[in-house]
Amino acid sequence: MFKRTEGSKQYDLEERTLQFAKDIRAFVKALPRTIANEQDIRQLVRASGSVGANYIEANESLSKKDFVMRIKISRKEAKESRYWLRLLNTGENDSVDKTRDALIQEATELMNIFGAIVRKSE
What 8-state DSSP symbol labels residue 10? Predict the structure, then answer.
């Protein structure tokens, strides 16, 4: 999980968002299969994939206004991912809880990065 090189000056945000979505997909395989979790997992998988998809769209935008809108959507989807992560039932498994905490931290960091991009772009 989280293959980013710490200390490197440049980190590809497109790759980071892709890794986040992949990590979410690996994480949900360890969750208990309850009716509520099944629905929440679907929402989480969609939101986590949308973070990177909208970032890619932002980089291909035709205007500054479109760029800022897509970055805001990426931030919103990261925030939504964090919400779904917090809502999931982990079965009180310490290992799964630690993974969830790491994913919540990554979602929070992505929200902060996108927020900074928005502030600098407006």
Answer: -
- Report the candidate in 39, 28, 42, 21 with the shortest Cα–Cα distance to residue 91: 28
Element holding 77 (H helix, E strand)? helix 64-87
Instruction: Give the CA distances from residue 46 to residues 8, 24, 52, 83, in Å, rounded to whole numbers and listed in that order.
Output: 29, 10, 11, 13
Question: Which candidate, 24, 114, 14, places its Cα nearest to that of 70?
Answer: 114
**pTM of the complete model:** 0.89
C-alpha distances (whole Å) from 1 to each of 4, 18, 19, 72 are 9, 12, 8, 26
Report domain extents, the chain. Answer: 13-121
Per-residue pLDDT, 8:
45
Mean pLDDT of 80-108: 97
CATH class of 13-121: mainly alpha
Average pLDDT over all residues of the chain? 92
Interatomic CA distance for residues 50 and 110, integer angstroms: 12
